[in-house]
Amino acid sequence: MPKFAANLSTQFNEVPFTERFAAAAQAGFEAVEFLFPYDYPAAQLKQLLDENNLKLVLFNTAPGNVAAGEWGVSAIPGREAEARADIDRALEYALALEVPQVHIMAATVPAGADREAYAETFVRNMHYAAERFAPHGINLLLEALNPVTKPRYLYASQYQTLEMAARIDRPNVFTQLDLFHAQLVDGNLSALIRENLGRYRHIQIASAPDRHEPDEGEINYPWLFNLLDEVGYDGWIGCEYMPRGNTLDGLGWFAPWAKKA
Ligand SMILES: O=C(O)C(=O)[C@@H](O)CO
Ligand SMILES: [Mg+2]
Fold this sequence. Notes:
alpha/beta, TIM Barrel, 8-stranded parallel barrel, 8 helices, 8 strands, 14% strand, binds ligand LASSHYVV, binds magnesium ion
């Protein structure tokens, strides 16, 4: 049976961030994910999780200067000290919030920059991160982002993140299979799911091409949920979609799996 986590960065935007925990729990979610915890003390977030009987299943390292087009600094040559400080800060939050996995954001690669130098920097920073998180049993994830949503990110295809995870070659490094990005770049989702079981440790969903609820568009999610059960995927599925309107109004697709009050 699939296990869904509400995404508190994209869902329940009708209420302020700290109120989204209760909203997700009331809607029947038992777990949540979000982009970044860093604007809040870890103790406050832990209390919100505990009060609402929610597990936290994923967050990201800091994104760098988003206004300047950055999306992660772990692959930027010359920014290693900042990247490692971000990794250390993510570890502090991960321990306090008892999260089983953290997405390490790579970077966007400016036009004309040496992509291989970015990849090498990323591998070195990932070795640092893998060593820091391993004693705590926390996995690290890499995520491919399609070039329309996130132009010039270090990797766009699932096959590039799979290759990068193999190149990093650490036992706690896996990929994060966001099926929305995967459909826009790679397609053939059932082969990705079947052939790479065990290499991806988290899934995210949204319709394609519009990134709304998983009940419209070109991906047949009910079929994929059955396939995930069939192959034995036992990780979380994050609902990283932009609701068409009110979040609750769009949760009909989730009704069969919602925790009953
Ligand atoms: O953009 C996505 O997709 C994500 O999962 C973000 O959390 C990180 O880019
Ligand atoms: Mg994603």
